[in-house]
Amino acid sequence: QTVYADQPASSAAPTAGLHFTAALLESLTEQGISVARVELIVGLDTFKPVSAQDPRDHVIHSESFKVSAEVLAQCGAARRVVAVGTTSVRALESAASLGVGSGRTRLFIHRPYDWKVVDLLMTNFHMPRTTLLMMIDAFVGPRWRTLYAEAMQEDYRMLSFGDAMLLDRSLN
């Protein structure tokens, strides 16, 4: 569970959020950094490997999400939006793409993708042949391969409780 979760619902914790403590969130707020909360209920299919010959043909699972109109407005007014975790990305981009603040989404983010909200992404390292890695590819392009090569060479930890990275899509 993350320090900001308020109800059990997901089949897994949003792992990028595990890097945040209550003290860190308080420090960010004290520095004038706005922290907004969204929800995406992670389903078991999140961990299902992509098996389609063409990965873009993979049938993605549906997940429940909630993003308030206030949060979307904050994002629209922000200089840059930093999402903590792929679940936050999927919630924010789903709300913007679907034009609704809650419901179920089957948004499958892969190249090419027209980003609407998120500018930076803090995420853990993901396994090959997953929709999460495809999202990373859509976010930073082929340079993800260089990042992962370094992670493998330096024995970074993957998945839950793994090492995190901050990705900037404007560097494409």
Total helical segments: 5
Average pLDDT for all residues: 87
Q: State the shape.
A: globular
SSE topology string: HEEHEHEEHHE
Low-confidence stretches: none
Strand percentage lies at: 5-15%
Distance between the termini: 33 Å
How many beta strands in the DSSP annotation?
Answer: 6
Rounded to an integer in angstroms, the radius of gyration calculated over CA atoms is 16 Å
Q: How much helix is in the residues?
A: 25-40%
Major beta sheet, strand line-up: 1-2-4
Helix/strand-derived class?
alpha+beta
| Largest pleated sheet | 3 strands, antiparallel
In words, what does this structure look like?
The structure is a single chain. The chain is of the alpha+beta class and 172 residues long. It has a three-stranded antiparallel beta sheet with strand order 1-2-4, with helices on one face. Strands 3-5-6 form a three-stranded mixed beta sheet, covered by helices on one side. The longest helix has 13 residues. The radius of gyration is 16 Å and the shape is globular.
